[in-house]
Design a protein that fits this description.
The chain is α+β, with helices and mostly antiparallel strands. It has a domain of 105 residues: Immunoglobulins (Immunoglobulin-like), CATH 2.60.40.10. It is built from four helices and eight strands, in the order H-E-E-E-E-H-E-E-E-E-H-H. The strands form two sheets. The chain has a four-stranded antiparallel beta sheet with strand order 1-2-6-5, with no helix packed on it. A four-stranded antiparallel beta sheet has the order 4-3-7-8. The longest helix is centred in the N-terminal third of the chain and has 15 residues. It is globular. About 15% of the residues have low confidence. May play a role in cell-cell or cell-ligand interactions during synaptogenesis and other events in the brain. This is Thy-1 membrane glycoprotein. It is a lipid-anchor; GPI-anchor.
Length: 161
């Protein structure tokens, strides 16, 4: 086999095999609710599966997942939103009994590198409030509409009758 062709094949396989990677996992309080932001880099259009869990008392508890079944205690309190390169867990009515080591686990379909995992220790008294800017990231459609409409608003001459 030609060495150049061999190198090209290896590079193609390595690029295809490493499709996504978790870049950051952060936690903040939004009122009385916990928000976990799991940011990732995705190099494929393959579907992404996720699982958020907590380890307490040396036992893993599934909070919300597209991979396995969530535990009853979290079903009514947890939901997940997905945006480009961001999976957010929202846990309502966060209390000190919800403290522990939280894990975000992601896997892209046909990603042969296995699951990507990241942990963060969450203690209620040490959590910061979610920043206003990060709230804008969650729903940027209204912000984009506002920015795009500014020139139009400037061009309209409001005349009182």
């Amino acid at each position: 086999m030609n060495p150049t062709v061999g190198i090209a094949v290896i590079l193609t396989v390595l690029q295809a095999a490493h499709c996504q990677m978790i870049k950051d996992l952060s936690a903040c309080l939004l009122g009385q609710n916990l928000r976990l932001d799991c940011r990732y880099e995705n190099k494929t259009n393959n579907p992404l599966t996720y699982e958020f869990s907590i380890t307490k008392d040396n036992r893993k508890h599934v909070i919300h997942s597209s991979i396995s079944v969530s535990e009853n205690i979290y079903r009514g309190r947890a939901n997940v939103t997905m945006h480009k390169n961001l999976v957010c867990l929202h846990l309502q009515s966060f209390t000190t009994s919800d403290e522990g080591v939280y894990m975000c686990e992601l896997r892209a379909t046909n990603d042969y590198t296995g699951n990507q995992m990241r942990n963060i220790t969450v203690i209620k008294d040490k959590l910061e409030k979610c920043a206003g800017f990060s709230l804008l990231i969650q729903n940027t459609s209204w912000l984009l509409l506002l920015l795009l409409s500014l020139p139009l608003l400037q061009a309209v001459d409001f005349v009182s009758l």
